[in-house]
Amino acid sequence: MTTGELLAQARKLTRDEQLKLAHDLWIEADGPYDDPAEVESEWATEIGRRLQNIADGTTVGVPDSEVRKRFGL
Question: Are residues 11 and 41 in the same domain?
Answer without folding.
Answer: no
